[in-house]
Amino acid sequence: MSLRARLLTLALRLFTKPKLAKMTDPAELREAMERFTRIALRPAPGSVAMPLDLAGRPALSIRAGIPREGAAVVHFHGGVFIAGSPREHLPMLSRLAKLAQVTVIAPSYSLAPEHPFPAALRDAEAAWEALLAQGYRPENLILSGDSAGAALAFALLSKLCVQGTPPAGAFAFSPWFDLTGSSPSVHQNAQSDPMLAGHRLPDAAQFYLQGHPADDPEASPIFAAFPDCPPVLLQTSETEILTDDALRMEEKLRKAGTEVTVQLWPGVPHAWQMMDGLIPEARDALRDAARFVTRVLTAPPQRSDDS
């Protein structure tokens, strides 16, 4: 782990983790995420973010240079379902757009607790349908998400796989796939995680679920089906409380015959890819994601139009 990453994780452990462990007001988390992004992070040089309307909700279309024509990464932001926005994820997503030379489309979605489950997922589904209506083809799109956004992306991925209209691939950064909190790492990594407090996961989930069963596959895609799933990349930290969410999804997908790659990064904090420009591990992880994007978008289609 780099020196900068060591210093960052120390700061997170000393200052951020205690604050998050006590935070009960969604507005406070929203303000903290917005402030951190505004002060500490910058979009990639030469990148452009254009406002976009998807099914009546705002989104961003992000590009840098000359992107691949007709293709895009569709990324759902994290924030525990209660915070975050495409604009706050612009530094990470603009870097990904630049590295992969692909348009990144970042839809917004309704946030809890004002809009509980399944509002966010329905917005994600509507955004996907809007992109198809604009002329995008599933085989030229890649689904992705970070943290809670990964739950939305993979719940949508499951639906598309069941329908027989999957995207070209999917990837997730520090995914939160199991809202029941039953992954062993939630407890085993409670001390080693420099940012997230495992004992607060049930509270965080309930802001979104508001009494709905956490094992609903639409809420927790670890319980969903992924028939004929396209290639998947999962990146997670070895020390975060959600490590096993990624490892359990890897096992599930591999048993179903999916080509899946899991990258375990030592010591870095949850969703470290967001910290591009602060720690070199973020740029390295985004480079790996960009290579995945390039590979699956240039691979032959898995099925013909008639199949």
Q: Using DSSP, what is the number of strands? A: 8
Corresponding CATH architecture? 3-Layer(aba) Sandwich
The structural class is alpha/beta
Q: Provide mean pLDDT, rounded.
A: 96
Bin the strand percentage.
15-25%
Name of the CATH superfamily = Alpha/Beta hydrolase fold, catalytic domain
Radius of gyration: 18 Å
Tally of individual helices: 9
The first-level CATH class is given as Alpha Beta
Describe the protein's architecture and organization.
The protein is an alpha/beta fold. The protein has a single domain, classed as Rossmann fold (3-Layer(aba) Sandwich). It is built from nine helices and eight strands. It has helices at 3-22, 26-40, 90-100, 119-133, 148-163, 185-188, 201-209, 243-255, 280-298, and strands at 47-54, 57-64, 72-76, 103-107, 141-146, 169-173, 232-237, 260-265. It has an eight-stranded mixed beta sheet with strand order 1-2-4-3-5-6-7-8, with helices on both faces. The longest helix is centred in the N-terminal third of the chain and has 20 residues, at 3-22. The chain is globular, with a radius of gyration of 18 Å.
Question: Which features characterize this protein?
Answer:
globular; 307 residues; alpha/beta; Acetyl esterase/lipase; 8 strands; hydrolase; 9 helices; 8-stranded mixed beta sheet
Give a concise summary.
This protein has 307 residues and is an alpha/beta fold. 40% of the residues lie in helices and 16% in strands.
